[in-house]
Amino acid sequence: MTKIKFGTDGWRAIIAKEYTVDNVARVTQATADWLNQNFDNPSVVIGHDCRFAGPLFVETAIKIFVHKGIKVFTTKKGFVSTPMISLATRQLKASLGVVITASHNPPEYNGYKLKGHFGGPLSPAEVSEIESIIPNVNEINLNIISVQKAEKEGMIQYRDFEQIYIDQINQVFDIEAIKKADFGLAYDAMYGAGQNVLKRLMPDMTFLHCEHNPSFMGQAPEPIDKNLQEFAQLMKSNDHLHCGLATDGDADRIGLYNSKGEFVDSHHIILLTIHYLVKYKGLTGKVVTGFSSTPRIKQLCAHYGLEHVEVPIGFKYISGIMADENEDVLLGGEESGGIALKTHIPERDGIWMGLTVWEFMATTGKSLEELIEEVYEIVGFFAFERNDLHISDELKSKIIDQCKKKSFNLFGKYQVQAVEDLDGFKYIFDDNRWLMIRPSGTEPVLRTYAEAPTLDEVRVILESCKLTIGA
C-alpha cells in the first residue's frame, strides 16, 4: 500500500511509481466521500495541465465521482491552468475544484490539487479530513463505469474553462491599452498550461516555449532565474523587449524580467503591486504574506497605513484569509511567486499578475525599472536569492534538529541577532540582512533563502550557510 500524503500544495508523486491510476482512484474516493458528507447534491470542476497522462488521470477521477453520484464539470479543450479551474469552480458554483497537476515539479511528477468553492486552495483542515479517509486500496472496477452513460444522464457536463478565464480578464483589464503601449513584451510559458491565453489576447508579442511538450525539455517548470536562462538571454539580446513574463507548469506562479534581462523576484513584484494598487488605483486592504517573504513588505505597508499579516508557507494559509467574507485583503503573496489580488479570486495567478504589471507600465508610461525605483525610494534597495540544496533526508533531518536546538549563532562573519521560527528558521543579522533555512513541502530539498543590500553579498551569506550547516 502506498501512503498518500498531501504536502504544502496538494499530493504529488512520480508518474507510474506512486502516481498511478489506482492511487488517483483512491484519492478521488476519499474526495467524493468527503463531498457527500459535507454538501447536498455536490459537484466538481476538474481539469489537467500539460503533463503526461493528464487526460487518463482526469478520466479516472471522473469515473469515481460519477460512480459516487457527484456531478462533474470538465472540458473538451485539453489542458487548463490552475487559476482557470479555481475561477470556474467559483463561477459555476461547484462544491470543489480538482486540478491534475504537479505545478512546478520536474516532468516525471504529477499531482492532485484541491480547490474550495470560493475559488482558492481548500483549507488545510479540510484537506486533512480528506487525507484521513483515503482507502488502503481501490476496490472500484473502473472498467465497468461508462463515461458515455454519465454524459447522457447529465452527470458530466462540458464547459470552456479557458474562455471563462479570458472573459474575466477582459472585464478587468484594458488589453488594447496594454497592446498599444510603447513597450515590447515577451512571455515564456515554460511549456506550461498558460501558453494559449496570451496567444489569444496578445498574439503579436514575443513567445518562448509556448507549445505542448510534456517533458518540459527535462526542466522543472518553475519560473526562477536559474531555470529561465534562455528567456533571460532573449530579453538581453533584444532592445525592443522591455518586460518578460514567465509562468510555471500550471500558470499560477510568476517570474519577471526587466529590459536588461535581469530577474525580478516575487518580493519586488509584491512591493511593486502594492505600490500600484494603493498609490495609483486608490485601493486599500490587508496584505498577507508567507514567512519567507521580505520584511520590506511590512515596511511598505506601514508607509501606506495597511495592516500586514505573516502566515506559514503555503498559499492555502493566505487564501483562507482572503476567502473570509469578513476580511478585506488587498494582496496575498509568497516568495515562491504565488500572488493573488482582491481584483480577482483568492488564488495565485501568474498571468493575472503579469497583466497587472503591464497595465502599470502602460498607464504610467514608465519602464519596469523606473517603477521599481519608485518602490526603492520608500523601502531602500535590496537583493534576494534562494538556493535549493539536494541533500540526503538524513542530513536534512540533522540540520533541522540543529536549528530547533538553536545550535547556529554565526554564519561566516554574520552574527545572529534574532531567530524567528513561524515556519522554518529565519536568522536575522541586522535590519538589511537575513537568512532562512526550511525543508520544502513540495520537493525533496532543503531551501535556504537570503536577503542583503547586494546580490553579491546575498551569495556570500548563502555560501556561508552551506559551510556552516555542512551541506
Secondary structure elements and pairings:
Elements: E1 11-14, H1 21-38, E2 43-48, H2 54-67, E3 71-74, H3 82-91, E4 96-100, E5 109-116, H4 124-132, H5 147-152, E6 156-158, H6 161-172, H7 175-180, E7 185-188, H8 195-201, E8 206-208, H9 229-237, E9 243-247, E10 254-257, E11 263-264, H10 266-280, E12 286-290, H11 296-304, E13 308-311, H12 315-322, E14 329-333, E15 339-341, H13 350-364, H14 368-379, E16 383-389, H15 393-404, E17 410-411, E18 414-415, E19 418-420, E20 425-430, E21 433-439, E22 446-452, H16 455-469
Parallel strand pairs: 2-3, 2-4, 3-6, 7-8, 7-9, 12-13, 12-14
Antiparallel strand pairs: 1-5, 4-5, 9-10, 10-11, 14-15, 16-22, 17-18, 19-20, 20-21, 21-22
Summarize the structure.
This protein is an alpha/beta fold. It has helices at 21-38, 54-67, 82-91, 124-132, 147-152, 161-172, 175-180, 195-201, 229-237, 266-280, 296-304, 315-322, 350-364, 368-379, 393-404, 455-469, and strands at residues 11-14, 43-48, 71-74, 96-100, 109-116, 156-158, 185-188, 206-208, 243-247, 254-257, 263-264, 286-290, 308-311, 329-333, 339-341, 383-389, 410-411, 414-415, 418-420, 425-430, 433-439, 446-452. The protein has 16 helices and 22 strands.
Spatial shape: globular
Give the domain tally.
3
Class from helix and strand fractions: alpha/beta
Please bin the fraction of helical residues.
Answer: 25-40%
Largest sheet, order of strands side by side?
1-5-4-2-3-6
Give the C-level CATH assignment of the largest domain.
Answer: Alpha Beta
> Can you tell me the CATH topology of the largest domain?
Alpha-D-Glucose-1,6-Bisphosphate, Chain A, domain 3
Strand count: 22
* Total helical elements: 16
- Going by CATH, the homologous superfamily of the largest domain would be Alpha-D-Glucose-1,6-Bisphosphate, subunit A, domain 3
